[in-house]
# Entry
Amino acid sequence: MQRTQIKKYRIGKPIPTDSVVVDVELEQGAIPYFHTDEPAKRLTFSLEKEDRVYGLGETIRGMNKRGWIYTSKNADDPVHTEDKRSLYASQNFILITSDKRSLGVYVDTPGVVTFDIGYTKLNELRIDFEDFDADLYFVEGESPLSIVSQFRHIIGRSYIPPRWAFGFGQSRWGYKNAEDVRRVADQYEKAGIPIDMIYMDIDYMERFKDFTVDEKAFPNFPSFVEEMRGRGIHLVPIIDAGVKIEDGYDVYEEGVKGDFFCKKENGENLVAAVWPGKVHFPDFLKDSAREWFGNKYKVLLDQGIDGFWNDMNEPAIFYTEDHLKEVFEKIEDYKGKNLDIWSFFEFKGLVGSIDNNEEDYRRFYHEYKGQKIRHDKVHNIFGYNMTRAAGEAFEKLSPDKRILMFSRSSFIGAHRYGGVWCGDNQSWWSHLLLNIQQMPALSMCGFLFSGADIGGFGANTTEDLVLRWTAFGIFTPLFRNHAALGTREQEMYQFPSKDVFKHLVELRYALVPYLYSEFMKAALEEKMLFKPLAFEYSDERSREIEDQLLLGDSIMIAPVYKQNTTGRMVYLPEDMKLVRFRAYDDYDEEVLTKGDHYVKADLNEVLVFIRKGGVLPLAKPADRTTGVKVENLNYLCYEAKPEDYKLYEDDGESRL
Ligand code: GLC
# Structure
């Protein structure tokens, strides 16, 4: 691979992010490719009609990002509609590509950056900065894939989870006690649906305090963890960014004593509120605080836990003590008044804008690399550093065994310490499509262990949506069904089609040798796991395909994401072998020629297309991933032989 085609330029005095781990020499002179407008804090690039723009990791809209405006400003926003500009992540890597040229651009700054990709002017890509400080990496290469590989090389190896994390996990905000969790395990076992993980949402904690377990709800937690492990199930607890303020609570007291919390201008610890009420935020940017917080995971590791999900780490803020006080004071003025249209809007705005308030992100500071920096300047790397805290600690606390870790908020760099899930999506068909479209962009940015809440988090789901979403989710490394408190229960056993779910999840388990092999190759060889068709096929039609994905080297998938349909149009850039699965051992195969096809896919069917020269190994499924063996695989091939497949094997546990 060519490593020499990356050029680094600097504008202003960027705050380092530690996202790039390879030394790239700084070039002098004017920024290439872009027109620089310093007073406007803007870089401009002329887009040609044929240019497509990919990347930005976890965002809204399609794979080709052209025609919208995206702001890197990590946001706790559970309504992922097309009009939004920010989600939970800032992953500032884009790729501009056409027949004539391909260019990767990484904008390395923790600050707010807006990518206006043909929004203001159809043929203009503008990168607008709140502060004109950034390291810019320009990556040239002969193809999108080579550009991505070079970029991935400089940001370091992607996080590798234990192999069991490729199993299925059930989650729900609302499992209150050990009985609830046992019931989930019982029901999955009763339905014969494989499962490896049950997630524990905030209710396992004692009044939402990090690194505590509610003893009434989970008496003798270590023995409960052991009981579940005995059944082959890993419990995966959530950890939130805010630490409850409570006398006698050791984490709070240690944090105060060690000076580990974020401070206001006057030096006092910021008081914000999240689930537990008032909290302090650990200053994850400060080395000592990061080390301290990371070591806290030991409390749960010692009780047998070996996986975590980090949440609310944008950070989400319900309110700050100071702002709440201001709001109450202002509300006084409205008392007894006849609120006209404008004063009513103002009044409503006061209360409505209380959470995740812009002003609050300017109320506190970090100690970062020896400097005091206001939060809004480094907002986008807060969640990243929480995950880093955990990842760095795990290397010491669990030197031999990999620990499962994924986060809600992220920034490039966090991909070395964990994966991500795509946050609070909704039980909408459009969000199934969004999930499909997010996967390749996440791969580009190194977030390989990723997935979204299957079935949708917010809103009530329907059985057919959970079926179709599961039929896609069986391909995503993170394969988790999760739902919000108060929504319709959506564990697979809640629905009449238990057998179909069983077949789908069994198919996932049968795919584990393939998924794990392709995942490991992607991580170790700096390759993409999910690819848009256009990254491998150069024909015109492939460029516009936004609902099919290449997964690893052997297959293409075409999920059904529309309600009340019994099939879909599929575009084949070359002849492929269609395998229509009803179960891992019940499928039909047919070679389809290059071009468009209407392909039937009922609610119980999954479409897989084996590419020319492709080999898809299938294992015999088991109730748990540990039972999925790589011996006696069934190889489905198209113009290839089983020996052509490079199976990746290891013990699935040891660190690499
Ligand atoms: C946040 C998370 C969600 C979780 C909830 C309660 O909304 O994104 O996954 O269930 O908090 O912890």
